[in-house]
């Protein structure tokens, strides 16, 4: 029987329709959490895979109104959330020569503004419970020589800065805030990455294989559990030993 470390918890996962977000959702549910699955299109497949205890919500997490609506739905259908996994993200490859302000702003809105909105809506709810968990997806690409990602790397570095600052503001109420930095991972979002590029990445890792979503979900289970109660403001690299941030 699965370890029911998250029994009774209510968790919100953004970008839950596919990839890392879907896997995190399945694993949190297997540990006993009730799930609010959020994506641009209603993540019905993920909800069906989980069955009872999961609701699928269509929302754009890059705008405040998306968060206001999803918060009201979660309150009504599941109760006040204990856990937010800010997973939804976009990573268009655009070199600085082609990058325009619109793409820059969109990348920040989806990958970073969303984390701010999540805190504004859910910190008050978690404060009441004297317990809460935010896990925010950054990326190990911030330390790698990959072209076409200046906007993405800037936003994902911002995720770490926000995590560090927010952790200080909420620690007294039992709320922890941490970032996860995955390696290049096998998801629908990376299906177009050329094989040679992927192989070069694996060869630079101590563990020489493509990361799977389940490899990333494991540390998120830990960070959202009671076991990680004394760990906050951290940036955890989950990349098979490719890059070490100290
Ligand atoms: N896959 C990788 O190699 C990798 C590596 C490091 C970090 N990450 C990060 O992990 C997270 C998940 O990556 P993935 O590869 O599973 O992504 P993916 O592209 O496979 O899935 C992302 C999901 O987020 C949703 N989404 C995008 N914008 C949204 C919005 N405005 N509102 C609601 N939902 C939205 C998409 O619809 C999609 O279902 C991202 O934050 C990404 O930056 C991924």
TrEMBL record:
Record-linked CDD domains: SDR_c (cd05233)
Domain of life of the native organism: Bacteria
SUPFAM superfamilies membership: NAD(P)-binding Rossmann-fold domains
Family label: Belongs to the short-chain dehydrogenases/reductases (SDR) family.
Official protein name in the record: Short-chain dehydrogenase
Organism for this UniProt entry: Mesorhizobium kowhaii
